[in-house]
Amino acid sequence: MGSRSGNITVQYAGPFSTFAGITAQLDFTDVDASEITAFDGNCTGEVTKYKWHIHVKWPNDGDSESFEKCALSVTGNHYDPLKACGPNSEFVGTDDCLLKTPEYDCNPNDYSWDPLVCEKGDLAGKLGDFELDENKQVYGEWYDPNYPLPEENTPEWNIILHAVCGKATPRIACAVGKLGY
């Protein structure tokens, strides 16, 4: 995929708090757009936006991967313990989600009024997409009042970056989360 570098850091307000500050410093200057196009034909131009989510499985040996090593069969779907039931929820297709999934509409405005409208792992829905600046970088800071508790973290958690290519959002990069205080 070429080189992408940086980090996403989560700082909890306290050990039993769901309130977290999230910072991202990501550099996409060396990402090869032709590799993304080869992986997913829906991505025909330069990618300038990425969705980001917490996913629930990590069988990979390394700390980060790309493309097929971030596939649904490898990294699972979005973390969703409260069953908000988006179309990419870890519980999609279950009886609990059958009626909720078609109605799912997680966005920052609705989330600010009611955190239960979003999956806990739907960071793009809750906080917005990553948008690259003119230098193909992302620098940002967000606050999430309903981030998963520290005790909910598992070694399998990973954050996936999905390229926004029209309506298609292929999984481009993924990295395992590391819990630290």
User: Helical segment tally?
Assistant: 4
Helix content: 10-25%
The share of residues in extended strands comes to: 25-35%
Instruction: Categorize the overall geometry.
Output: globular
Over the alpha carbons, how many angstroms does the gyration radius reach? 16 Å
Organism: Phytophthora kernoviae
GO biological process, one term: superoxide metabolic process
InterPro entries: SOD-like_Cu/Zn_dom_sf
GO molecular function: metal ion binding
Describe the protein's architecture and organization.
- The chain has 181 residues and is α+β, with helices and mostly antiparallel strands.
- It has a single domain (2-176), classed as Immunoglobulin-like.
- Helix content is 12%, strand content 30%.
- It has helices at 33-39, 72-75, 108-113, 123-127; strands at 2-12, 20-31, 49-55, 64-66, 130-131, 137-144, 158-163, 171-176.
- A five-stranded antiparallel sheet has the order 4-8-7-3-5.
- The chain is globular and about 40 Å long.
- This is Superoxide dismutase copper/zinc binding domain-containing protein.
